[in-house]
Every structure is written in structure tokens, then in C-alpha cells.
Amino acid sequence: MESSILKIQDYSVRRGDFLLEKINLSINKNEIFAILGKSGAGKTVLLESIAGIYPPTEGVILLNDRNVRSIPFQKRNIGFVYQDYGLFPHMSVRNNISYGLKMRGCSKKEIDEKTENMLDLFSIRHIASQFPKKISGGECQRAALARALVLEPELLLMDEPFAALDYSTKKKMYSELIKIHKKFSCTIIFVTHDFSEAQLLADRIGIILDGSLKAVVKSENLMDEHYSEEIDIFLGRI
Amino acid sequence: MKQKVEKTAKFDAFTLISISIALFVMLFIGSTIFAIIIGGIPNFALAFHSEEVKFAIKLSFVTATLSTVICMLLALPTSYALTKTDMPFKRTASILLELTLSMPYLLLGLSLLIIFSSGFGKMLKEFGIKVVFNQLGIVMAQLTVNLPFCIRMIRTAFSDVEERLEYIAQLLGASKFEAFRTITLPLCKSALVSTFILTWSRALGEFGATLMLVGITRMKTETLPGSIYLNISTGNNSMAMATAMIILLISGLALILSNLLSRNKSCGRTGGA
Predict the structure, then answer these.
(1) Of B141, B12, B154, residue with least CA distance to B83
(2) Is B169 on the interface with A (CB under 8 A)?
(3) pLDDT tens string B89-141
(4) By C-alpha distance, which of A184, A191, A144, A188 is closest to A163?
């Protein structure tokens, strides 16, 4: 039996008028899991909830059997990549990548070594001294991934990571993600509204509509399963 | 044909009226500055040879700098608490600040006079802290007038920093303080510098609250605005105009400096050319 890294139990959270309701989900170690849904369905709120950003209205999210909210932010060992990358605009790409290492008190030698490795791994050495404003979306994406992965997180959360990329860059990044998953053997949860992207990359897919998790399926079965009418409408089968 | 279209767009009645009003307003504002320049230039040299004006410049600079530094030191944590924490009575605190901002400065000075003339003020006096009719009172008056303004400016700057960046910093290993020091503060750098300069400039021109709390005693509690008031009261108009010219120059320089420093606003996009 596969061991789970994350358990979401009866989790509800309110953000303004929006309610994410009674989510129950378990994510296995080393799994790639896609949260699929249309805009405004609550995908990002769920992802941010997994990172422990919001206090729940009810329920709990357990990271390695510990309430994620009870673990200090800096000890959660979670990497987060936002749709618009969330790079620190006042820091160069190199400083963005080394930021986490500095904050964790690593030695200068270790910081330099790991940062340089990441610059090579993601082929972004040529933009190391550039600032986020000056680089392309694909380069920002790589820099954000490098910044998250340099700390070797156990869990990598990605919010619509490929939505802002053009078709060819997107294709390249798909294979990069698979490579990353193999190399870092971390669990990846990513949010998307693209069925084919979810099917291509994920082991399992959770379908979220109007603030509740409607179904969890193996990605290869996404189009074969029988669902409720609203999921069929979302999947374009009706 | 194209030219005709452009002409119509440029000179429709609404545009014409708004431009006319704007020009009238500029003329009105400009005339106040012009009046100071015209009256100040012939007497400008006179002011620099006057011991009284030198004293007022020195006192204004020292008190404005001191009150601005204290203001920033108090406003930074207060603004952080008001924007980034779940502190209790946040709404009440905001109303209190807005109310203080809208109060006449003379009234703030009166409140300070009441506080520092009370038993509390007398107790402070026994410890050697004299506020009423004292130079320390000038700092206190400037601080009271400027603190809500300073907090409002810094709150706006802090609110402009995306909260997500602070979360990301914390997920990467930063403590709340480190996230504040390495992300929030640098992203607000130009706004903070502007706030410092504008607060200083306002402190330099503060008059109402100072008048109420410390009065204006020649060569003792005589700040630059106080000097203008004293000279006008005693009929020495030329000296008053010269002092006004000095304040105008200092304000102009502060404005230029503030604009230059805010030009490179660092709060902004987080990536993607």
C-alpha cells in the first residue's frame, strides 16, 4: 500500500463570498496529482490551503500526519510556484534562487554550489544576473521552479504553471516537469483547467467544481468514467 | 479628413471647459507662489544675515528631522500591524487615524496642551521633560500632526506589496521578520523615502499645533513659520517675505527629491517580460 504524504479531511474554508466545501483527499508520496477545474472553482484556494496559508473553517489538512497549520511556515518543506511565478522583483534570478538557502542558514559554499547547479539544471545561467521584469515567461517559470526545488521540497505545489506559456514553451516545460519529478522524487500537486495537460502529466486527477471536489480519477480513465451531469458538462461530453 | 477628426476630438466643449478651469486653478495657485517669490527675492540676502532667521532655520531643521525620525520609527511597526496582522480593533484604529488626519492642527495642539498641562505633564516636568512652551513641544506637535499622515502613507505602500510574495518568502524559510526585512521593506523603499521627505517637509512647515503648545518666543521657540508670523505681527514684512522664500525653496527641493526617488518605484510585476 502506498503511503500518503497529504490527507485532507472534511476541509472547508471561506474566502470572502467563496466557500471551499468539505474536501476529502489523500495524496500519495511521489505522486503527480492534478487539480482540474474551471476558473473560480476554488483550485488555487485549495492549493494555498494545502500550503497552510488559510485557517480552515472546519476540518484539517495533515502533512505527514501533522496539521499543516501547526508546522511553522519555514519548516513545512513545501515549494510553491504561482501562475505568475511570484519571483521577487527586486532580486536577480540568482538571488531569487539562493534566497531560501540563505534564509535556512546554509554556508556560503553550499549556497553558491546549489545555486550554480540549479542555474545549469534549468539552463538559466545566461539570465542569472537579470531581474524578473527583464526575462521571458518561460525563463521566469524556470527560475521559479529552480527557486522552489533548490531546497529539495517534499511537496511541490504549482498553480496553473503552464497557463501563461506559449505552445512550444509549454511542451518543453511538460518534459522538464517529468524530469524534475524523477530527479527530485518529490510529490507534485498542480492546478490546471486543461484536461489534456492533466492527463499527460498527472497520475491522478481531482475534479473541482463550484468549491467542492466532485471526483478523483486515474488520469488514464478521465474520459472513460461515468460522472454526474455537471462533470460531463465540464468535460464537454454533453 | 484625418486632421478634422483630431481637431474635433481635441476641442469639444467638455475638454475646453475642463482645460479653462485647470488653467484658472493653475493661475490661482501659481499667483500665491509668485507673490512669495516677488516679495522674497529683494529681501532674500537680508534673511541670511539675520541671527533670528538663522536660529529659526536651525531650530526648524533639528526639530523636523528629529520628529520625522521618531515618526518613521513609530509608523513602520504601526502600519505593519494595521496591514499585515490580525490585530484587534483594527477598524477602530483606522477610524481614529482618519479622524486625527481630518482635525485642524490647532485643535491637535490644544489637545496636547491639555495633556501636557495636566498632572501627567507636571509629572514629566519633574523628571526634566518639559513640553509646554519648550522646544521639545515643537517636536511633539510635529509628531502628533504628522504621525497619522505618515502611517497612512506607509500603510498604502505595505498594502501594495503582494501578500503572496511574503508567503513565498516564508515557505522558502524566512521568518515573518525576515520576510518583512528582505521582501516588504525593499519593495517599499522608494515609497518610504518619499514618505520621509514629505513628512519632514510638513514638519518644517508645521505651525498651528506648535503655536498652541509652545507659543512663539523670539529666539527660543521660533521656527520658520513662527518667524513669519512674528515678523508680520511686528510689521517687519520684508523679513517675513524673505523667510517665506526660504520655506518655499526648501519645500521645492524636498518635492524634487521626492519625485526623483519615487521615479524608480520597485513595487511591481513579479516576472515575465
Answers:
(1) B154
(2) yes
(3) 999 999 999 899 999 999 999 999 999 999 998 898 888 889 899 999 999 99
(4) A191
Which residue from B171, B267, B269 is facing A80, i.e. has the nearest CB?
A: B171
For the four alpha carbons of B112, B117, B122 and B128, in that order, the dihedral sign comes to positive
Least confident of A87-91, A166-170, B22-26, B190-194: A166-170
**Can you tell me the ipTM of this complex?**
0.88
Look up the pTM and report it.
0.83
Q: What is the grid cell recorded at A200?
A: 499527460
In contact, B102 and B189? CB cutoff 8 Å: no
Contacting residues for A171 by C-beta, under 8 A, at least 6 apart: none
pLDDT by residue (tens digit) across A36-69? 998 888 999 999 999 999 999 999 999 999 999 9
Using the predicted structure, report yes or no on whether residue B271 has a pLDDT greater than 90.
Answer: no
| Whether A88 and B170 lie within 8 Å, measured CB to CB | no
Please give the C-alpha separations between residue A42 and each of A63, A204, A212, B150, B166, in angstroms, as whole numbers: 20, 18, 8, 38, 21
Q: Does A80 contact B at CB distance below 8 Å?
A: yes
Cα–Cα nearest to B43, from B228, B259, B270: B228
Helix (H, G, I), strand (E, B) or coil at A142: helix
Q: Given an 8 Å threshold on Cβ–Cβ distance, is B268 in contact with A133?
A: yes
* Residue B199 cell numbers, joined: 513628512
DSSP tag of A19 = E
> What is the spatial distance between Cα A16 and Cα A168, in angstroms, rounded to a whole number?
37
> Residue A67, by phi and psi: left (phi above 0), alpha (psi -120 to 50) or beta?
beta
